[in-house]
Amino acid sequence: MTVAEPTTDAADNSFRRMDESSAEQWAHIGRCTALNQPRVADRILMLLQSLADVRDGFLTDQLTHSLQTATMAERAGADEEMVFASLCHDIGKAISVPNHGAISAEIIKPYVREDVYLTILNHQDFQGRHYYHHFGASRDLRDQFRGESWFALCEEFADDWDQQAFDPDYDTLPLEHFEPLVRKITAAVSSGAGGTQRTDY
Ligand SMILES: [Fe+2]
Ligand SMILES: [Fe+2]
């Protein structure tokens, strides 16, 4: 017996209401969704590319900043998930600067371990050390996280890479350099921060 390959087409007998669905229909949707998983990398790369249009008064555009942060992480010997996270840490700015840390963290959450997710989620509170005094805000917001497992990682990310990555003369690696990593990391969900959420449809 030949088993048909799953396709991305809707099944002819698929439901019109979720409360009328069957396990077989969900199995088909699950196979289609898995086949289309490479779309995640495509969309992340598309969002990163869109940051080339986001400058907002900075010396570098946000794509350059993102690439430079990831380049610094890679050259410092960061592991692959952390290089990926460094590349994507401000990807939320493609949609909204306000709340961009949380937007970015939630996008990468299914693909990284929890410490990496929490580093990106809270990175602005660590960045504040370097400029929040100009807004009359506390530079010590990171202190609330002392003792957390990811504290040192977030300090290294913010202090050594993120806050230093606004130099147009730095030897920044191009997006093409990181594309294989983006595709590798997003090929499957992580057992870390995102868990195996097989019911999110
Ligand atoms: Fe940020
Ligand atoms: Fe940043």
Write a structural description.
The chain is mainly alpha-helical and 201 residues long. It has one domain (38-185): Hypothetical protein af1432 (Orthogonal Bundle). It has helices at 23-35, 38-50, 62-75, 80-88, 100-108, 114-121, 123-127, 151-161, 175-185. The longest helix has 14 residues, at 62-75. The chain starts with 22 loop residues before the first helix and ends in a 16-residue tail after the last helix. The mean pLDDT is 93. The chain binds fe (ii) ion (2 copies).
Main attributes?
201 residues, 0% strand, mainly alpha, Hypothetical protein af1432, binds fe (ii) ion
Topology of this structure?
Layout: H1 23-35, H2 38-50, H3 62-75, H4 80-88, H5 100-108, H6 114-121, H7 123-127, H8 151-161, H9 175-185
Helix pairs in contact: 2-9, 3-4, 4-9, 5-6, 6-8
This protein binds fe (ii) ion (2 copies).
One fe (ii) ion (FE2) binds at residues 65, 69, 89-90, 162.
